[in-house]
Amino acid sequence: MTDSDLARLRRLMPLRHLSDAEFAAIAPLANVERRKPGQTVFEARADDTWLFFVLEGEVRIVDAGGDSFTLRGGSIESMHALTPHPKTRVRAVAATEVRYYRLPGELLQLGQKQTAKAGIEVDEIPDGADEADKRMMFEIYHALMSGQLILPTLPDVALRIRTAAEDERRGADEIARIIQVDPALSAYCISVANNAGFAALSRVTEIREAVIRMGIPATRDFITAYTVRGLFSARQPQCMQLMQKAWRHSSEIAATVYVLAGKLGRLNAERALLAGLLHDIGVMVLVNEAQEHDELVRAPATLHSVLRELGPQVTSMVLRAWKLPEEFVRIAFEAEHWDRPSPGPIDIGDLITVAHWYQGPGDVPWSLPLPAGNPPLLAKLPQDGEKRLAILDEAAAELARARQLLG
Predict the structure, then answer these.
(1) How far is 324 from 321, CA to CA, in rounded Å?
(2) Beta-bridge partner residues of 71
(3) With contact defined as beta carbons under 8 Å apart, do 253 and 279 qualify?
(4) What is the second-level CATH architecture of the domain 3-145?
(5) Which stretch of DSSP H or E encloses residue 358?
(6) CA 213 from chain center: how many Å?
(7) Cα–Cα distance list, 110 to 9, 14, 124, 139 (Å)
(8) Of 72, 79, 179, 372, whose CB is crowded by the most CB atoms within 10 A?
(9) pLDDT digits over 65-94, tens only?
């Protein structure tokens, strides 16, 4: 392994949290390997005990249902480990010539004394506060990478409507029949259809009319957004507070990008709203998992670090398990990377990054600090000289309506 490879390995998640001594013990066990197009990188069951980091090239990862996504070396996502997962990652095949790290996953179980495959021993973590915090971080990470972390399922009504929306033989009548079984959902759809963004001269009173007025794609995305809210719940009081913060944060970002997309007129506002609402869905999963670790709930700084570090990766697994657009996954990883390059016209991911800057971290303890100056992406939007977005400052009424749509 070259010095450059070693330096790059040191920056990867979760290896960047290791002490120098721990990293020195693990690094010799990291193999740099290559595969030609069509060759297997990993396979479930055969490679469950390994972690993989893509350095160069593209890898196609296939899930249990046969769907796939592509991971490119050098992307933000490639800074996180890949490993087989029972729902979202059962096989990886080289799409181009690839170069990657392969690392024994057992070395990341840092809470206990163990011996690595090559005979190098990783000492037990001392009882100091910093080391205990790190142990908890790796315990959650191990649960994630070993498939023990339970991914939520998309609410049934949202799944049925998304399935119907993808079938050209099933139109507004079929979707209306699914919606009208649920009175609360029916009332919500009629309310959205009569919102200023869709309202015509007359108000709609029937579900079918509401679906036709909104259009099937918008109906699909609004219902997904509406039903997901029920997932943000927890039995433990401190965790419930975090769930509420996560919902407020995500819905505020969703409302902001919905208005921005509508103002710009070149992007799908409903798709932007759903992407904004789901960009942090992994936080909900991790907060639920934290309830099973009392010591983690009692260490809020560590828990916040877990949410910040692992949130995007868990979000990506949830979104892929729900068969949502791959664009949403990219957005989750890029949301708070202020200085990332973004050539070409503005897209939904750009809007979500700008929305984070505009809203600020607020009371969201896992958010990254704001940049010292204006992010480069801001140049893509109309703005004034006072670190505000004129396009949003003039849209208070639209923002209020968007917030109302999300409850």
Answers:
(1) 8
(2) 59
(3) yes
(4) Sandwich (2.60)
(5) helix 348-359
(6) 30
(7) 18, 12, 7, 8
(8) 179
(9) 888 999 999 999 999 888 777 777 889 999
Which amino acid is present at 10?
R
Q: Which residue type sits at 146?
A: S
Give the integer Cα–Cα distance in Å for 279 and 336.
Answer: 11
What is the spatial distance between Cα 20 and Cα 29, in angstroms, rounded to a whole number?
15
Contact partners, residue 304, CB within 8 Å, separation at least 6: 365, 366
Tokens, residue 316: 């990506």
Backbone φ and ψ for 59, nearest 5 degrees, come out as -120, 135
Q: Over the stretch 308-343, which tens digit does the pLDDT of each residue have? A: 999 999 999 999 989 999 999 999 999 999 888 888
pLDDT at residue number 273: 94
Alpha helices, DSSP H, located in 42-182 = 129-145, 156-166, 172-179
Place of tokens 């190098």: 120
Query: Which of 253-267 are b and which e, b meaning 16 or more Cβ less than 10 Å from the residue's Cβ?
Result: bbbbbbbbbbbbeeb
Return the percent helix, strand and coil in the chain, to nearest 5: 50, 10, 35
Long-range CB contacts (within 8 A, 24+) of 174-179? 175/211, 175/216, 175/219, 175/220, 176/206, 176/207, 176/208, 176/210, 176/211, 179/207, 179/211, 179/219, 179/223
Do residues 135 and 113 make contact, with C-beta atoms less than 8 angstroms apart? no
Amino acid at 243: M
Q: Alpha-carbon distance 392 to 17, whole Å?
A: 39
Distance CA 45, CA 39 (A): 17
Give the DSSP H/E element, type plus range, for residue 260: helix 237-264
Bond from prior residue into 371 cis (ω within 30 degrees of 0) = no
The fold for domain 156-405 equals Hypothetical protein af1432 (1.10.3210)
Q: How far apart are CA 205 and CA 45, in angstroms?
A: 53
Q: How far is CA 391 from the centre of its chain?
A: 27
